[in-house]
Fold each of these.
Amino acid sequence: MSTASNVSSIQHEPELLGQTVVVIGSSAGIGLETARRARAEGAKLILTGRNPERLQHAASELDALSTGTFDATDPASLERFFRDLSSTIDHVMVTAGRPIYGRLLGMDLAQLRRTLDEHLLLAIQVARYAANKMRPGGTPAVHGRHRRPPPSHWPGDRVDGHRRASRPHRQPRARARAHPSLIAAGFVDTSLSASLLGNELENRRNQLRATLPIRRVVGPADVAALAVHIMTNPALTGATYDVDGGQQLIG
């Protein structure tokens, strides 16, 4: 067999061909990178975000089926979005919401409510509203979290730690839906990180480059790769997957 034949026989086939992925919070950062990777695997995309200009740019780049501009933490808008979807879906990836630095006891009531809305209640609402739009065997929604947050912190010193990804468990007959899979991200070098850390951003990057086992900073593409892998691997469901460059190993 020739070398050309060998290469041809192992060509990668798109793993999400014919499937539809909803990315909530897809106009930048991890959400946008996940949408790009899912599109490269053949997925059809439905994208949402709060910034109409950035969302339209992402939709044009990725030839999205449709978009929705709304605040995902608004229950009425979220319900309306899923209710009005004209097609069934296979996966939901949610990157909406942002972490908050500081000690739990030091937060005011408004901060606490926002944190609950963006991370706990949003997960429940997405699962509830997406369920009727999922194909048999699909996962309605998942929510990322920190497995071991520092004491008295929410979510501690890890940025971008609340991510979602889902995968279908596609079978020829209807079956119970797969359980949510969770991605627990450590510090991820995004525009959100920059806005949160300001002048301390480069110091944080240098610290991580010097201490992480991977000797670099985790980027959006690292999280996106894991999210799409969860979508395509039928054996992965109902678990938490860390993507932090080994940050847990250094304390």
Amino acid sequence: MLKNYITRRQLSRVLAAAVAAPIASDLQNAWGQAHYPSRPVRFILPFGAAGVADITSRLAAEKLGEKLGQRFVVENQPGPGGIAAARAVLSQPADGHTVGLVTNGNAISAAIYRALPYDPVKEFATISTIGAFDLVLATNMESELKTLADFLKAARAQPGKLNVGTINVGGTQNLAAELLKASAGVDFQIIPYRGTPDVIVALLRNDVQLLAEFYAPIKPTLLDKKIRAVATTGPRRSPFFPDVPTVAESGVPGYEVVSWNGIFARTGTAAEIIDVLNSAIREIVAIPEVKEQYAELGIEAKASSPEELKQRLIADIAKWAGVIQRAGIAKQ
């Protein structure tokens, strides 16, 4: 007949094992956090290779690897709305060994898509920005419209007759033009083009009278003095264009569009790991080499707290949702 009881010694062993298991697990987690990163970190980008985001992210990855003693391996996973890249990050364990690039584009996606397969506010553990950059508004160098105020005055005098060129509908450049139209209370046409070279050609041909674009894609044309920067879109003058007024200074109070790039992990990542990454980012963006290379692309190397980046994401989702609704842009 089998005994239906256990000895006192057996009971002690069972209880000891039950107590030891969570302690061992906690110690293992603590050790892993204290030694983060313990293996190479995947850094997933929602853009293709060789673009501005790719170049700046690879530099950040290189410096983070040097700082933290493990490689940060950049993976390009482009796709509409940054969805593929975000899902790739969110599909991995919340251990900080897979991070992603979060941008103003993620805020626009949350505003323009009827539904995303994730909630960026709830599921992104924001870590820090790595850079911020304004848009540039420019006219043809031969145009009589030498300032943004000139353009707005002409647009008011000829409602619906002047054109602003941007790239694709729903992009930051396009929405910045929509915001200008609404904020200034003027009627002009916004003409979307396939790419920046097409917008530049249209401006040089006078098919459009103003373009809205980031600095890097139009830098050669600006340096060749074929086009003229007439305004920047940030809250204060750009350090790269100290003599060019902001849109707000040009007669549109309160206007502001600042794009940004940052790094996020999956929600649930330990606060200690977030702190390690945030501290490392703050150090690398202060490196002169990083600041100089970012500046060449019109980007101000800039860190933030995790909460500051989270609040920026939330604010921009609300901002672009309002612009999209007022402009009558169909949700995707």
Amino acid sequence: MGLRALRRRGRVKQEASGANAGQENVRVLVVGAGGREHALCWALKRDTPDADLFTTPGNPGTAQLGTNLKIPATAADDIVAAVREHRIDLTIVGPEAPLAAGLADRLRAAGRAVFGPSRDAARIESSKAFAKDVMQRAGVPTAASRSFDALDPALAFIRGHAEPLVVKASGLAAGKGVLVCATRDEAARAARALLADGALGEAGREIVVEEFLEGEELSLLALTDGERIVTLPAAQDHKRLGDGDTGPNTGGMGAYCPVSLATPELVARARHQVLEPTLRALAARGAPYAGVLYAGLMIAPPPDGTPYVLEFNCRFGDPEAQALLPVLPGVTGHLAEIAAGGWRPREEALAPSRAAVATVLAARGYPEKPELGAAIIVPRDLEAGTLVFHAGTYRDPDGALRVQGGRVLTVSGLGETVADAAQRGADACELIAFEGKTYRRDIAWRELGRGGRRAGAARG
């Protein structure tokens, strides 16, 4: 169907009342304010140039592509009203928090097309304890674990657990709720900080303690209407702050695709062992899942190669979206068709048109205490094949671009190979300037060590 067909369908239903008289262009609202949402807006404009875009609350990057509405992403009542006021044909919910709060349910109840799972289905991300239960009952490969909402039982379990081990806040923690602990003492301190001291507030009122898995991480995202599945090219995220995967965990310092580890055989295995049984299990619980399902995987070393699930997310990843969306022309048509119903994809997997390496430029002090306010200079003459997506930025009263958040910009380099893309991105990262600029210079280091594969090799 695509975006234009979604608009025509809506006009047939509504023109009788005059509600859309004279409106020709499809109208799309993207909810959120980060780099992922800027990338979504960019992809929508690429696929449907005459679309009218709105973003709430948006950022200076999305303002260049459409209209920012000054409404917080979690203000459901105001968003539903804005969808009605601006005659929005399709709403795409970017972040996890509004999905977990039921924004997609509210919009569907109002008769509006929305891309994003229901509140019940979004629990696959908003509650790690729930996700673990779903996986265990569905037979999905994942680390052995136990969930706790009281400190003493958690400490007793930790005392008998092999080292190393992992302690996770069950709720939404903006990428900061996973603590890899080398010793039981370290894990006990983490459990105490979450359950007794409230270090992450509501997100840490329940924790998951699980075994540490060896292997290589992979991000596998899939579009689904709850029954049919189309996988996107696998990407690889870089969570640690520093080069060589050192320093604290962050929300993500960069990502790239394609990943040669993700052979067609491995993706098919993950589809059959992870995605399909998870969707069936959610449907059986009365929470059918429609949207994009993100599986964070740990691929066991050869010869095993089992795709173990580290986590599920209920939305496009950030920064994975900034690597994937630029190399998937036409992908937003799938989002519109899933939202409208009657999606009938012609393929089981989408292949990237080229390679992409996305590097996050962060503020000094990120993730603990980022320094805000620095002026940002983005040269106008960056090399072709480079995209800059805004995240933590704002414009001051004089129009100058300034730092507003920990992750400031994502620079996506594009090329025929991962090596080409990495070089383009690295050149642009050097040219962009702000005081305290912090970024990794080794995004895609594993792939570059394997030869910087050409995008076409991802095709199965």
Amino acid sequence: MRRAATVVLLSLLALAAGAAPAAAARPEKGIDVSRFQGKIKWQRVADDGIDFAFVQASRGSGGDCAVAPDDCGADGQYERSYGLAREAGIRVGAYHRAFAGGGGRKRTQRDARKEARLFIEMVGSLHDGDLLPALDLETPFGGLSKKELRRWVRVWVDLVQKKLGEKPIIYTNTTSWSATGDTRKFARAGHPLWVANWGVKKPSVPAGNWDGAGWSVWQHTSSGRVNGIDGNVDLNRVRVELSQISAR
């Protein structure tokens, strides 16, 4: 009680002397973008209070890409967005939108390696402070069984970690992750979770609250508005320090 009274007295004396109380830290805000946002004005994005951004580096193949094949493969806006976002003071990370496929052990492994190599080629190497590389895993899954899908994810994250030197983040949602059998294997291996759950006060977290670790990044809406970007954009927030999900 005596210590608490002293703290209060010192605070009152500071206010009387004209000292302003310390401001609470502003929550860090983020976005994730791809070629579909077009050319982004990154300095305006930074001026609008965005602290971090995941930028699509590559995109796999799958049923939706058959409709628009030019939207598969390398993301033509990645290098531009990565460079300009860093120049604007935004912490940047690369992600790969998976379209898992194959079927059977060898074909599934081959498909995962093909998508991982494309991502690695686009990213090249990580710089200090970059966000960890991320795997965007959501439906469709090309008819893979639970076991095959787990194998696909394991092959992708292991190859990316081997080549880029950092353990990838996994982006998913409860429905998509259930296709793996709601496995806790990747949570236990230390892969941070980037969870998608829109329009709710608290996200639903797969794999037993990610095996007790909880989410690190939450994509909480797909209809955000940010200066410098035409149209809607995904908005994210973090539960951990950005340094905890960044390359060292």
